[in-house]
Structures are given as C-alpha cells and as structure tokens.
Amino acid sequence: xxxxxxxxxxxxxxxxxxxxxxxxxxxxxxxxxxxxxxxxxxxxxxxxxxxxxxxxxxxxxxxxxxxxxxxxxxxxxxxxxxxxxxxxxxxxxxxxxxxxxxxxxxxxxxxxxxxxxxxxxxxxxxxxxxxxxxxxxxxxxxxxxxxxxxxxxxxxxxxxxxxxxxxxxxxxxxxxxxxxxxxxxxxxxxxxxxxxxxxxxxxxxxxxxxxxxxxxxxxxxxxxxxxxxxxxxxxxxxxxxxxxxxxxxxxxxxxxxxxxxxxxxxxxxxxxxxxxxxxxxxxxxxxxxxxxxxxxxxxxxxxxxxx
Length: 307
Known about the structure:
The protein is mainly β. The protein contains one helix and 18 strands.
C-alpha cells in the first residue's frame, strides 16, 4: 500500500510540473537549490567528477516498544529502557560526471535496562560500499535517474552474544548481522519548484554465513524510500520522508524459520538550513508499523560539507 501511495504522489507531482510549472519558466535560469537532502532517501544527482563529499549523521534512537510477528505493538515493561547513540559517516567521490563511489561507516553506543540490570556496549556497526551510475539527467518531464549497486560488509559484531549484555553487544544490522549482502536499485529525483522529490528502491540478496555454528541465510529484503523537500526563503527548507523495509523469513541449516520475517514503515519530518558552503538538517523519525522489529523514536542531525 505504501509503495502505491508513493508512486501515485510521484506521478501526480510530475504531471503538475509538466502542465503548470514548466509553462511559466520561459527562459529563466534553472532553479537549483542546495540542501542536506532527506535522511535515508537517496538523491539521484551525483556529486561530480573529482568532488569529495563528507556527510556525518548523528542519531539518538529510543525504543518505546516492539512489534511482534503479527504486527501487534507491545510497549516496553515499566522501568525497562533501551536507547542508542549512533554516528554515521557517509562519503561520496565522483569518478566521472556519471559515476561515483560511496561508502558508509557506522559507530554506535547501545544502552539497555531490564529490571535491576543495566548494560552499555559500543562498537562499529556494519559498513557499506556503493557504486552509482547516472543513467539519465533530469529533463522537462522525466526525473533524474541513477542506478545503484550496494554491498553490505559485516564489520559489526554478529555472534557470541554476552548473556549479561541484553543484546547490546550485537552491532550488526537487524536485516542480517554477519552476512554479506549485495543489492541493486534505482534512485529518482525531480524538481517541481518549490519542491524537490526523491524516491528509491534497493533489492538485496544476503549470502549464507555461519553464525554461532549454524548455517544461516537471511531472507531477501527491499528498502524503499520517498522524500519531499519544500524550499523556503533565506536558505530554509522543510522535509518529509517515508521509509519502508520488507524482508522474508530466514533459513537455518537449510530449514525456513517460520515468522522470522521483518518489516517496518517510518515517517520523518524535518527542517533544514543551507547555503553554498554547508547544508544542515534536523529531523524526527518514528516507526509507525512493523513486524519483528523495535518501535523507535529518533532525533537526527546531519550536515554536508564538500571539499
């Protein structure tokens, strides 16, 4: 349902731009505002040949409860706590005008309290490499289209969990800590003054890996995102983002584990301020629905600086 909504909005905005906005542009200079972009949704334009861009993200994630295998929400028991500080470093380098290589590193600090037990762990999460190719630059009707290859590298701890750590010492991705995943996707961006809209989808294939002595193959999964930016005077902009995740059941020693699928859908409003030298964004992200996942509320800060 969410994907149908995203596609409908995307198509409607393109129609609006074609019929009404382009009729008024005439020979005016191209509108090209700067911003930090959404939190998770890809922006299709590349950084440019020889450009090196660094974008740190700072997350404070608080878990208010969980969604079980049937999608039912249960709040954390009274007195229990679970929260996280996460720092991400996203980097882009333009190999050519149409090809760039990207990377992402994650460092996190996990905290939990259960009855009288308090615990805290820190370490690196999984890392990512990306290769993106611009297939089509934005035209009068068509959006900017970029193809993406993604490789997840399991640099976060994914096995031999300490029973006294309440799971805080496991740093790998919930989609499959310990597995190498390769994914393929598409990024779209369209300028519809005073809006810029972004959408992406990446389908991922985890590889089998031995985890705590058990051959484990996580289910294939789909990330899909939609981001909308509204630009205001004096460098300000408003952002609204929707993020979705769908993953099938995993297999252990060749046998499917029932009800081990994962899904979630989040919403994130935010406000940003930018100029030609630096772009910033402050946002609030909330998990609305899900299965076999935590229900999180997050505060996110990011900024961009190009070298």
